[in-house]
Automatic annotation (TrEMBL):
PANTHER family in the record: LIPID KINASE YEGS, SPHINGOSINE KINASE
Name of this chain's protein: DAGKc domain-containing protein
Gene Ontology molecular function, alphabetical: ATP binding; ATP-dependent diacylglycerol kinase activity; metal ion binding
Sequence similarity: Belongs to the diacylglycerol/lipid kinase family.
Cofactor(s) for this UniProt protein: Mg(2+)
GO biological process, one term: phospholipid biosynthetic process
Organism of origin: Streptomyces aurantiogriseus
NCBIfam families: PRK11914.1, YegS/Rv2252/BmrU family lipid kinase
Spans through the membrane: none
Origin superkingdom: Bacteria
Lineage, top ranks: Bacteria, Bacillati, Actinomycetota, Actinomycetes, Kitasatosporales
SMART domains noted in UniProt: DAGKc
Keywords from the named record: ATP-binding, Kinase, Lipid biosynthesis, Lipid metabolism, Magnesium, Metal-binding, Nucleotide-binding, Phospholipid biosynthesis, Phospholipid metabolism, Transferase
GO cellular component: plasma membrane
Length: 296
């Protein structure tokens, strides 16, 4: 493996934490004997092109310094290749790093972990989801949660988990269940009125909301959480339980496991890793061992 490491940086992640996090992470890698170069794109398209070029040129690892949005871009560059991905979590949600048990908002510790893991060849193959031509690491969200995600991503204040709580309350004003058509591996079509359907490769989104608490990054299957036609009052009681993952015990919630999921619902968009994917219908498939993760 080459000793050159590429830092893929989002300088605006976590209200500027991304830029600050790059320095101690790079220092830790250099102290371990690695040559470090940094790439920062002018926009998402340019950043992805630069990351793909680094992978094509044979970088020893691509290290994403930022939040789930940047990790999502990084996955598009490394998925299906031999190039390992390191994570320096410096965003608002950091759900992918959380699912992997990696350091959160401690860039020096993350840099040391990556350096030690590369020297010890501690690299783990994990599954990814694929939908709409995009790879994703955490959750494909649709319905009430995608609308909350959309609103939360537009909010500048507060930060972290609190903004998704406020976005949820705002979306409740126009809340209604949505008619879904769901097809899983068994081929059966399920037509349901649902508040949301979440397809989890990882367990959480929105900064620790454990919407798919049983999701396993290495089993080749999604956990599909379907929240039925709750009224506003029931949703207010159920949704806060997402942080503990106990919402799945509610009678209006069902969980399925499948490698392929087809979702259709009029007027509903899908989000993956907190990023807009596009309107339903969408088909998601779980791809075993699609990416190599450093130190997880």
């Amino acid at each position: 493996m080459t000793s050159e490491i590429t830092l893929f940086v989002n300088p605006t992640a976590g209200r500027g934490r991304g830029a600050h996090a790059a320095l101690p992470a790079a220092s830790a890698l250099r102290a371990a004997g690695y040559s470090v170069r940094t790439i920062v794109g002018e926009d998402a398209e340019d950043a992805l092109a630069r990351a793909r070029a680094a992978v094509a040129e044979g970088t020893g690892a691509l290290v994403a310094v930022g939040g789930d949005g940047l990790v999502h871009l990084a996955l598009q560059a490394v998925a299906g290749t031999d190039t390992p991905l390191g994570l320096v979590a410096a965003g608002t949600g950091n759900d992918f790093a959380r699912a992997l048990g990696l350091p959160l908002r401690d860039p020096a510790a993350a840099g040391r972990l990556i350096a030690d893991a590369l020297k010890g060849a501690r690299i783990r193959d994990i599954d990814l989801g694929q939908a709409g031509g995009r790879w994703f690491g955490t959750v494909l969200a649709s319905g009430f949660d995608s609308r909350v995600n959309d609103r939360g991503n537009r909010m500048r204040w507060p930060t972290g988990r609190a903004k998704y709580d406020l976005a949820m309350l705002a979306e409740l004003a126009a809340f209604r269940p949505f008619p879904y058509r769901i097809r899983l591996d068994d081929g059966a079509v399920r037509e349901v009125e649902a508040t949301l359907v979440a397809v989890g490769n990882g367990s959480s989104y929105g900064g620790g909301m454990r919407i798919c608490p049983g999701a396993d990054l290495g089993d080749g299957l999604f956990d599909v959480t379907v929240v039925g036609d709750c009224g506003r009052a029931a949703l207010l009681r159920v949704f806060p339980r997402v942080y503990r993952g106990t919402h799945v015990e509610h009678p209006k919630v069902t969980v399925h496991r499948a490698a392929t999921v087809e979702l259709a619902a009029p007027g509903i968009a899908g989000y993956t890793d907190g990023e807009p994917l596009g309107p339903l219908p969408l088909t998601a498939r779980c791809v075993r061992g699609a990416v190599r993760i450093v130190g997880a």
